[in-house]
Amino acid sequence: MASVVEKYEEHLVAKGNKARAIAETIRRVRSFHAGDLERSIGDVPHGTISDRYKAMSSELAADTHRNRLAEVKTFWRWVVMRGLATRSPAEAVEPIGRRNKGKPQLRRSEARELFLWASQDASANPEASLAVLMVLTLGLRASELLERRVRDVDVGEDSVLLWIDMGKTRAAARVLEVPEPALSMLRDWIADRPGEQYVFASKDSRTGHRDLSWLRKVLRSLCVRAKVPVVCPHGLRGTRATLAVEAGLSAHIIARELGHESFVTTRKHYLAEGVEEKASTKAFMRVIEGGREKSGGVS
Fold this sequence. Notes:
single chain, mainly alpha, disordered C terminus
């Protein structure tokens, strides 16, 4: 007879969640409950859940332990909905601490330095340089980059389009134009390779492609060499969003490029503090200065 956790795993599969995400969710649910779920599901007390969460909150960052609690609450809501328990012992547990807004980002001059180093390092380490440039210039999620196959790279005479057919949200499906120098590097990197092969393939990986730890490692190495603060791939994605706002791009275009359903998500999790006000001031000054030039000055 399937255990409650096995049934929950079947539920996640039926929802269409990715296999890797399901495995990680199930691992965390089992770990949090420490064997409680192997006994009677209705006998897990609220105090046990609360005590374990408090212990976890003293060891992990706020974002991490709050996400773990959210996963546990989602699990218990499913248990109650299925009639396997009459109440959720996790529902009344309050999250502790404040979430951080996004990840550390590079400043404009730092992003330029990283861009230059990645461009110049292409001959020595083309795979690493290409990966970093694509995250920086396209604002890709790590999974969107690493799970791309050669057939997703649509090479034309003077352009390269990157097809992302599915992802974290419905809005993740999009087509992006790859800019130089990543355009030329990507063309060379996939030349004469079969369409079903991953762009960033790996024989040592269970999935067949490079993993997040590899991307973090090569990004860290380039940040150190460029003498800029070390950021994670998600922080580089945020850097791209912030610089796009500074450049005056339309909010809905930026959200679409990042694969967000609305600019609200972009603003909440990706933009550096004050960047919208800065962009607004620049736009206002362009109007004022343009109007002054057109009228020949103020009398």
